[in-house]
Amino acid sequence: MKNEDFRRAGYQFVDWIADYIENLEKYPVVARVEPGDIKKMIPAVPPARGEAIEDIFRDFERTIMPGITHWQHPGWFAYFPANNSPASVLGELLTAGLGAQGMVWQTSPAAAELEEVVLDWLRQMIGLPSGFSGVIQDTASTATLCALLSARERATGFEGNESGLRQPLVVYASEEAHSSVDKGVRIAGFGRKNLHRIPTDDRFALIPEKLAEAVARDREAGLVPACVVATVGTTSSGAVDPLKEIGGICRAHGLWLHVDAAWAGTAALLPEKRWILAGAELADSLVFNPHKWMLTNFDCSAYFVRDPATLIRTFEIHPEYLRTGVDAKVKNYRDWGLQLGRRFRALKLWFVVRSYGVEGLQAMVREHIRLAGLFRDFVESDARFELLAPVDLGLVCFRLNDGRGDAALDDLNRRFLARINAAGPVFLTHTTLRGMYTIRFVVGQRTTEERHVRGAWDIIAAAAAEVLKS
Ligand SMILES: Cc1ncc(COP(=O)(O)O)c(C=O)c1O
Hints:
The protein is α/β, with parallel strands linked by helices. It has 2 domains: 1-30 and 69-84 and 357-470, Aspartate Aminotransferase, domain 1; 100-343, Type I PLP-dependent aspartate aminotransferase-like (Major domain) (Aspartate Aminotransferase, domain 2, 3-Layer(aba) Sandwich). The chain is built from 15 helices and 11 strands. It has helices spanning 3-22, 37-40, 53-64, 86-98, 109-125, 140-155, 159-163, 179-187, 208-220, 243-253, 290-293, 308-315, 346-380, 406-422, 450-469, and strands spanning 133-137, 169-174, 195-198, 224-231, 256-260, 285-288, 301-305, 385-387, 395-400, 429-433, 436-442. The strands form 2 sheets. The chain has a 7-stranded mixed β-sheet with strand order 1-7-6-5-4-2-3, sandwiched between helices. A 4-stranded antiparallel β-sheet has the order 8-9-11-10. Strand 4 (224-231), helix 10 and strand 5 (256-260) form a beta-alpha-beta unit. Helix 5 packs parallel to helix 13. Residues 80, 139-141, 178, 180, 231, 233-235, 260, 262-263, 289, 301 line the site of pyridoxal-5'-phosphate.
C-alpha cells in the first residue's frame, strides 16, 4: 500500500470508528449469527495477489461486522466490562504505527521508561504503598501465573527452576476465586489437587479462620503451603476477601500473598472505596486490569510486586544475543514476565490517564457504582425478585423467586435470562452462587447512562412478567 493510500484510508477508518461509537445503540448488543455463519463467508484459501484496501474494508463491513458482539454498547451489562475510550484507541493506533517491540530497554527506551512511570502513577492512584513496583502483563491470568511461579520459586529457594518440584506445594484460594487460578496452578506445576479451596462466608468472602486451619492441617500432613490467592471483587458476586487477616496468616507462615483485583481494583481509585484494598500492603503481588474498567482497550493488566528481585530471578535468562551495554542500569521488562517480545501498552495507558485525569476516571467509576445501586434498588423494591449478594461496587446478582423449588427456579431464571437477552438492547450473563442459578448485572461501560439502566430494568420487568405467566 502506498503511503498516500494509507493516509486516506486512515482518515476514513478513524471517521468510521467515531461513527461506530456514536451509533452503538443501533446494534443489538450480541451478534445475531449462528456458529459457522462467518466462516462460510471467508474464502478458505488466501488471496494470491494483494487486494485494494477499499475491497478489504467492504468485506470487513459485510462479513465481519455481523459477527461482532458490541462490548462498548451502553447496554453491555454482561461478564465484566472491557471498556475503551477514544484516548486509548488513539494511543493504540500510535503503538501500532510505531511498531516498536519493547523486549529490552534498548529496543525502545521510551517504552520501558514510560511503563515504569505510568505504572507508578497507577500504584499511587489505587493507594498501594511506595514499595511496590509495576509491570504491564497482557492479562490477569498471566499476572496470576507470574505470581504462582514466583511463589513456587521462593518456596523452593529457586530449586523449582533448577530441578523441578520435589515435594507438593499447596496454593490456597476461596471457593469463589477465578478459574485463572486453577489454570495457573496446573501450568506452574503445583498440580490441580494442590489447589485447596477455602470456604466463604455469607458475603462470599474467604473465611480467614478456615484458611488458617487448612494451612495447619496441610503442614501436619507433610505438605508445604506456599501461596494464597485472595480475590478483591470475585467474578460471581464481587466479594472482597479480607486482606488484612489473610495477610497476617501469610506473614505468620511465610506464604506468598497474591491479590487478584482484576475487575474491582479500579474501584480503589475512589477514596470511599479504598477499603477494598485494606491490607494490600501485606501482599507480595497484586493485579488489576485497566482493560476491564479503566477505559484502556484490551489488553492491559497492571501487575505490582513488592520484591522485583524475586520476580526477575524467577524469569530471567541471559542469552548472549539479548545482552546490552546498559543492562546494569535499566529495567529490561523481558525479565519481568513470561514473554520476551512486548507491545508498547504503556502508551495507551498514558493517553487515558492524561486525557481523563484521575478525577475524570474517578467520576466514571463513581457514576457506574451509583447506577448499580439504582438497579439494586429496582430489584429490592419488586417482590418478584431476590437479591443474591451484597452490592458494594458495580455488580448486582439477582434472580426471580416465586417460591417454586430450587430446580424449577433455576429453570425459570434460565428462561428469564434468555428472554431478556433476546430483546437485543441489553446483554446480561449468569453464574451460580451456592448452586443457585444467578443473573449478573454489571455497570461498567463508558457509554452507559442512567437512561440505559432504567431501560434495561423495563426490559427485565417485562421479561419477568412474560416468564412468570408461562
Ligand atoms: C476476578 C478475576 N480474575 C481474573 C480474571 C481473568 O482476567 P483476564 O481476562 O485479564 O485474564 C477475571 C476475568 O473476568 C476475573 O473476574
